[in-house]
Design goal:
By secondary structure, the chain is of the alpha+beta class. It has helices at 15-30, 59-66, 69-78; strands at 2-10, 35-42, 49-56, 82-90. The chain has a single domain, classed as Alpha-Beta Plaits. Helices cover 36% and strands 36% of the residues. The chain has a four-stranded antiparallel beta sheet.
Length: 94
Amino acid sequence: MINKWIEFTVEADSIEAFKASLATVETASKAEEGCIHYAAFQNTDEETVFTVLECWASKEAFEAHRVATHIAKFKKDCGSVIVNKKALSLNPIQ
């Protein structure tokens, strides 16, 4: 199983457009084969910060997600407004 935590900080004037694009990615990702969990959040204390928590059944499912059409579109549409990105791989403790 592949678990990821991804944090994006975006330009303040791009919050609404980024939120809409990320919502589209969330919906499309949930429909992908091998997606166990995919949820996007906006930080309540810092509105320019967004977090995605995702869980994939296998490395193959995660790799397919990374090259999916909706991910390519998200990168093209939003790549220039992301000022910082942090990604962590997570292992369950139990």
